[in-house]
Amino acid sequence: xxxxxxxxxxxxxxxxxxxxxxxxxxxxxxxxxxxxxxxxxxxxxxxxxxxxxxxxxxxxxxxxxxxxxxxxxxxxxxxxxxxxxxxxxxxxxxxxxxxxxxxxxxxxxxxxxxxxxxxxxxxxxxxxxxxxxxxxxxxxxxxxxxxxxxxxxxxx
Length: 156
Prior knowledge:
By secondary structure, this protein is mainly α.
């Protein structure tokens, strides 16, 4: 199951699958809508002039709020209902935006930061190894210079 959710690269970094992230985003979005629909129905059911009279109406209202479409066929009339819809709007815009960004990344092929990060890690590793090699050469050079200097002092 883990191989479908993420892959670990040679640096131990988890690279999550876009499909797994998208599925998690959709599940989270509809779980929040399902939970908030109960709260919305609690506030709106039986209120004067309310047009949200069932769980399905509440769910639909929150789904439209999360997507920012808001057809206007169902709307809250109580303060509590309006607060639930407003909260769903802010949470939903974030989650729908996240899902939309994943889709856009897949379709439009934006730069894959995971690949760039791996390339940078490899470059950093190469530079570090090169620096260590240079450090060893410098240490060897210093040792030899000190040997030559001590030989000169003993010969003088």
